[in-house]
Amino acid sequence: MFKTERMKRVLLLGTMPALPETVDFLYRTGSFHIIDYKESDDVFDIGTPLPEAERASRRLLNMMSISQNLDMDEEDMPVVEKIPVKKIQAEIDAAISNLELEISSEAHARKEVKNLLAEKNAELSALHPLKHIDLPLALLRDYDSLAVFVGHVKSDPEAEFSVLGVDYDIIRGEASVFFVDKRAEREAAEILGRAGFSEIPLLKISEKPLVAIHRLNSEIGDLEKRLAGINSRIDTLRQRHGLFVIASLEELSIEANRAETPLRFGTGHHSFIVDAWIPASSMKRLQEGVSGIKTGIAELIELDWDSKTEGPPIKQKNPKPARPMEMLMEMFSLPKYDEVDPTFLMFFTFPLFYGLMLGDMGYGIAILALVLSGGFTKLMQKLGMGGGAPGLNKILFYSGISTVIFGLLFDEFFGFEILGHHVEFSIMGIEFPVHRASPETVGAMLMLCVYIGIAHLFIGYVMGFFTVKAEHGLKKAILEKGGWILILVGFVLFSFAALPALVHGTELSFTSPQILTGIILLVVGIVMTYLVEGINSVLELPGLASNLLSYTRIYAIGLSSVGIAMAFNENMALPAIEGGGIGIAIGVIVLIMGHTLNLALGLMGPLIQTLRLHYVEFFSKFYIGGGEKFNPLRYRRKYTKEA
Fold first, then answer.
1. In the prediction, which pLDDT does 404 show?
2. Are 446 and 436 in contact (CB under 8 A)?
3. CATH number of the domain that residue 159 is part of
4. CA torsion sign, 154 to 156 to 159 to 165?
5. Which letter does DSSP use for residue 321 in this model?
6. From the DSSP assignment, how many helices (H) and strands (E) are in the chain?
7. Residue 55 pLDDT more than 60?
8. What whole-number distance in Å separates Cα of residue 410 and Cα of residue 561?
9. CB contact set of 597 (below 8 Å; sequence gap of 6+)
10. How many independent structural domains does the chain possess?
11. Range of the domain at 193
12. Dihedrals phi, psi of 348, to nearest 5 degrees
């Protein structure tokens, strides 16, 4: 639970006839994390692909081209039914031939139309600045005695043109046209340069600009209709063949990867070798499976290894309900092999902190509705993050339940108090509901957050004790993490005794048993940590106080959410509704829009701050990370199924 799956380092040796069946075995079991063979010696060299690799790659490229022409997007393709692998294998070659014929012509036509549209739109953009010119464009070029300049100017150059002593004419508008006697072309160019002239290239057409614009608009309209027809036909083809194309891509990718797997092995003239990590619990089963390979001879051998010099891949081992939290660890960094894995603890603390922050029944119910209806998954897909939706869905589901529970304890429903004094209850001597926005509860809520921080950091130091013990032995664990545990306890004892005296201005008694005990524990803890960390242990003491105060953000985030909800309710929506008439509709709209905005903030704020409390405050007390994820060879099927 707090340790990752135990691993074994193995070598799989076999004769070359057994290679294809061995590759199938590796994928079928899904238990071998391969270490790529990189050395080359007189016995083994880097392996070569299986004979079917070339055919598999060629068919995969063909199907990828078809998928691209159909604008396939795997995230938009629902899994209506899984297609049997045998059906794909039986129909794939004929399907590729037929689909290439059917789709390539449409794809080619679409490409041509898009290119034409781009050309016509570029011409249209070039003509728009000239639409005020009531002359055929043919009259603006190719003169022997006139120089013509067409473009934009920042200032009017006519004053300088008037002293040139030659004939000139100007057509003004969005773009200006300057006709100047050819003999003064160079001087005119210099004048225009000083006026900030930027030239507009003239299109090689003869019509007036407005006539050309009308013609281009008509041509663009026709091309857009043609493109819409092509896209409609491609949409029909995608709906008809899309699932088969996606499923075929999946199967062909599996075939290509399987055929190229020997590139990760070492092979000789008569034998091959596979270096891998496997879960220790699977050793016996895998040995029996290897011995059952019939085409040739294969054997699985266990190797000795040292966890201090070799880092096995990390396969987390948590109860099923806690597994969604594993994605939070992957976002940060997987634990090292001998480290404590905090995933199971986060299963409790993450929803706890999230619910304490948001703490509103209405928002909690809204989150649960978003998760259970699939709305959150669709939102994640639109944002291009559909891959993380399943795990985050479950995390938000737990957090939504926690939010509803704390909403009941705080008597908050979209910022309204719905229980009032009609429902009051006591838990462990604390009277509920507790209204977070009430001035009387501020001190108690802040102290609750600090207590949570103390407990959280204490657990972090305890977990750090076991991590240091595993890596460096019991002595260092006692001095380092044991010292920090004493510092934390001593700091808390001293602070809780000293703060009331400092706040009320009374004399601080250093003979008080609580203060005296706190000072002794602080001094002993500092000495213990100094022996292993040196001066750094003293320099880190202010950080401990900062860490504890950081947990007050739990209350601060919650209070800001309550404040926003109450502002929309009491200052905007309710006054409008009480005014009657159209004010009722306005008030309802304000409520919907305001709480939608607050819910969006409520989704992100507690999520980010809860992650921070774990990643920064909590993990810094024990966590190193840096583990490599266990990534075994296996078939990952979403759209296909084996018989």
1. 94
2. no
3. 3.30.70
4. positive
5. G
6. 21, 14
7. yes
8. 13
9. 564
10. 1
11. 128-214
12. -95, -45
Cα–Cα distance for residue pair 309/336, rounded to 1 Å: 12
Q: Tell me if 222 is assigned to some domain.
A: no
- How many CB atoms neighbour CB 539 within 10 A? 10
Task: Give the three-state DSSP class for 416.
Answer: strand
Question: What distance in Å separates the CA atoms of residue 626 and residue 629, rounded to the nearest whole number?
Answer: 9
Q: Please, are residues 516 and 579 in contact by the beta-carbon 8 Å criterion?
A: no
pLDDT at 269 exceeding the cut of 90: no
Name the helix (H) or strand (E) containing 539: helix 536-539
Residue 192 resides in a domain? yes
And the tokens for 112?
Answer: 């041509």
Residue 305: count of CB within 10 angstroms of its CB = 14
Model pTM score: 0.77
In a domain, 492, yes or no: no
13's enclosing H/E stretch is strand 7-15
| Percentage of the residues of the chain whose pLDDT score is greater than 70 | 94
Stretch among 31-40, 227-236, 506-515, 609-618 having the lowest mean pLDDT: 506-515
Q: What is the mean pLDDT of residues 286-307?
A: 90
- Cis peptide bond N-terminal to 433, omega within 30: yes
| pLDDT over threshold 80, residue 503 | no
CA distance 485 to 474: 15
**What is the average per-residue pLDDT within 232-247?**
89
Cα 45 to Cα 272: distance, rounded to the nearest angstrom: 9
Is 165 inside any structural domain? yes
